[in-house]
Amino acid sequence: MARIKTKHVAWATAGVLAGVSAGCSVTTTPPVYHPAPQPVAPSRPESTMRSESNGPLYRTDNMSLERYKRVLAERIVEQNPDRIYAGNPQALLRSVIVMKYVIDADGRVVSVDTVRSNGDSATLATAHAAIRQAAPYPAPPHQLLSHGKVEIVETMLFNTDGRFQPRTIAQPQLTE
After folding, report:
1. Among candidates 153, 161, 103, which has minimal Cα distance to 132?
2. Are 158 and 95 in contact (CB under 8 A)?
3. Considering the entire predicted model, what is its pTM?
4. How far is the CA of 134 from the CAs of 70, 129, 147, in angstroms?
5. CATH number of 48-167
C-alpha cells in the first residue's frame, strides 16, 4: 500500500511540476504585419488658389470657418504691407472697425460693408480698400458656402498712425 501511495505522489508531483513549468514557459508569436492603409483619392478636386502668382498654395477644402478667416486675414496682411503694423496693438486705439465682406465660390469679393465704426473716414476708407486689394482670396471651402457665397466678419484694429491689424491674427493689445 505504501508503494501505491508513493507512486500516486510521484505522479501528482510530476503533474504539478508540469503545470507550473507550462505556466512559466514563454511562447512568442511572430508579429503580424499589417500594411499601412493606402490613401484614398478625394471624390472631388481640392479647393486651392495661389495667394500670389508665385505665392504659397492654400488648401481650403474641409477647413473650419475660423481657420479660413485666419487664411483671409493673412492674405489681407500680405497684400497690404504698408498699411499693416507689426507687434501688439497700442492700448488706446485710434479706431476699431468691424467689417462684413462677402466672398463668392471663386474667392472674389462680392460686397464690403461697415458693421461698426467710430466715424473716422480715413481708417474706414483704409479698411474697405485693404479688403478689396487682397482679392482674389483662396476659394472658400464648399461646406461654408451658402447660396454660393460666404460671409466674413473681421475687426480691424487701427493704431494712431493709421496702420492696422486684423483682429483674427492680432497679438494681444498693450495695457498701457
Report:
1. 103
2. yes
3. 0.66
4. 13, 9, 23
5. 3.30.1150
